[in-house]
Design brief:
Layout lengths: L2 H28 L1 H22 L5 E2 L5 E2 H31 L2 H6 L5 H31 L7 H25 L6 H18 L11 H7 L3 H13 L15 H22 L9
Antiparallel strand pairs: 1-2
Helix pairs in contact: 1-5, 2-3, 2-5, 3-5, 3-6, 3-7, 3-9, 6-9, 6-10, 9-10
């Protein structure tokens, strides 16, 4: 390949990836049921838990405690990232494969790298919008205080980026597991729900059974939620963690390992055609 080809190939792929991102985002917002579920679910769950458990000024932890809305916000942020990345891609790609969309796309001049850049761009856009909506609702409706330091927002940024990357790559890799597009939701959704229950999203993680904590520690959602807690909870809450610390290093390591492992698995197993299509 000539130097000219080498120098022009990457910008071309990036341009196509940006264009594909625009297409994927427009397609996503046309699916009203997916939009409502992915954007509204974390806000609705935060409202339910804050209202039910936060009656009469009840709080979490030792006195004076933390308001329930503030404590559950980090878990809902982590859940939102998981819905926008892992769950959405694992289901939507399986559906696209089942209806022949991926096979037809494979026959076009569009590079596969541009297709995956488009999916990644879509997840980034939807995750940012969803996160902004959830933070606005938490601050305006429930009075949850937002971080005031650059360090806290920097932590939020890297947890968000690594969590989104891990969720996106896992979603692409897992999209080959469902046997059909119709079964994708039935396969993916229960996994997401179970992970929410054992990862400290709906309950105080330290109150869960030890075996459940150990199982949850294998998966990214627990670490995303813990990383977000380090941003939105006061420093004193660090002592409530099982390890007695926020474990930022472990959080980054686990999310990176899942991202790399999912990338390797996805490269080896991703299918453009249905199982019965050769």
């Amino acid at each position: 390949m000539s130097d000219v080809d080498t120098g022009t190939r990457l910008p071309r792929v990036l341009r196509l990836g940006v264009a594909r991102t625009g297409y994927e985002v427009r397609t996503f917002f046309r699916e009203r049921d997916a939009v409502v579920f992915i954007f509204a679910y974390p806000i609705i769950m935060l409202a339910i838990f804050a209202t039910v458990f936060g009656q009469d000024g009840a709080t979490v932890g030792p006195e004076p405690g933390i308001p329930f809305a503030q404590y559950f916000l980090p878990g809902m942020l982590a859940t939102g990232i998981m819905l926008s990345s892992f769950q959405h891609l694992a289901i939507s790609i399986a559906v696209e494969r089942d209806d022949g969309g991926l096979k037809r796309l494979r026959g076009t001049p569009l590079p596969s790298s541009a297709f995956f850049l488009g999916k990644t761009g879509e997840v980034l856009v939807t995750s940012l919008v969803q996160t902004a909506l959830l933070l606005a609702a938490a601050a305006l409706l429930f009075g949850v205080p937002m971080p005031t330091t650059g360090t806290a927002w920097a932590t939020f940024a890297w947890v968000f980026v690594l969590g989104t990357a891990a969720g996106t790559l896992c979603g692409v890799a897992f999209s080959s597991v469902p046997r059909s597009g119709k079964s994708a939701s039935a396969v993916v959704t229960p996994i997401v729900l179970v992970l929410q229950f054992i990862s400290g999203v709906f309950f105080v993680f330290n109150d869960l059974p030890t075996w459940m904590q150990q199982v949850a520690s294998v998966f990214p959602l627990k670490w995303m939620a813990q990383g977000m807690r380090s941003v939105f909870l006061p420093p004193s809450a660090e002592a409530w963690e099982v390890s007695g610390s926020w474990q930022h290093g472990a959080t980054a390591a686990v999310l990176l390992v899942w991202a790399v492992a999912a990338l390797v698995v996805g490269v080896r197993t991703f299918r453009w055609r249905r199982r019965d299509d050769g």
